[in-house]
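Per-residue structure
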Amino acid sequence: MTIVTGRPSRRRRSASAAAAATASDPTAPIRTRALTKRYGERIAVDALDLEVRAGEIFGLLGQNGAGKTTTILMLLGLTEPSGGSARVVGLDPTRHPLEVKRRVGYLPDSVGFYGNMTGRENLRYTARLNGLAGDEAEDAISLAVEHVGLTDRADTRTDTYSRGMLQRLGIADALLKDPDVLILDEPTASIDPIGVEDVLRLLRQLVHERGITILLSSHLLNQVQSVCDRVGIFAFGQLIGVGTVPELAERFGFSLNHIELVVDADPEQDAEIVRALKRVDGVIDAELGIALTDRTLAEAAAAAVTTGDLEGPPVEATPDAPAGPQERIWIVTTEPERELHAMISSIVGAMAAQRLIRIGRHAPTLDEIYRRAVEQHGKRRLAEGAEGAA
């Protein structure tokens, strides 16, 4: 799928301009301060301070019910906050909801189109609602469907579309107004893997080609990690962490060196492996990671192992062979000041009695970071509740 820029966007920004935006930029396209929403005694969004920079894809990550959709509704002026403030493209959504809607494209978590109409006819309906008519509307529709890769299906009924095609049509619908900001609520939910990759590729291209700012809400961690510049972790109505994935990893305790080993060893040998690893000077701990039983080693490496700043390839043998039930993954934690190259050499020596299949630096996944962040936050809430009760 390729973005075709039939006309230059009046708001195109360079990558360097987007990178220059700072977290304290008062002109950020989305900015909230102490934004709060209560439903009776329940606090759905609790004093939210959020800033989304121009020209970035920001992922709002959290479980269903964490407060993500309520936040989006407040940003669009579709529900009034109980407290605090929000600015979207410089406007207060509560006071100027229509102007915000003219400048912000929105894709809800459940896309609805008239099934007895074609994709193009549905977009014509939206164009009329946005004040577009005649050649201006047709040009905008043609450009939008080309952007999302639906030109060949634009004139077929939408009740024949797959879920992924409907999502892409929804993005085309949001692009008709040439928005400054796109807000997408669970845009890849219930889409097959190929459709997901199409949507994520489209979002990256929209930012690159048109400089659009994207706020993406999702509970699908691996997809957020693959496309977003920064991530905000949402839990219990609160934003408990914001940053790039490496920044979040360090904040929530993943700052130590971690090395991942894939070993061909029977589970009965686990105790011996632990003893061998802990004999290595500088190793703090070793724990069994996920079991490889239904993936190839190459897939596992792509999903979980990165060489990071290591020079040269990791130690590897037969990476495309199917993983067997005796293959074990170990995560080894080493002292932070230890040089990784030397540590890996020492570990390789200690594991001489085992068939070492792969070794490399382990980068924590967003799933691991999210789980630890929510766990730490939950413990703090319990401790604060106990103090309050006392």
Residues 276 and 350 are 6 Å apart (CA to CA). The chain has 13 helices and 14 strands. Residues 1-23, 291-323 have pLDDT under 50 and may be disordered.
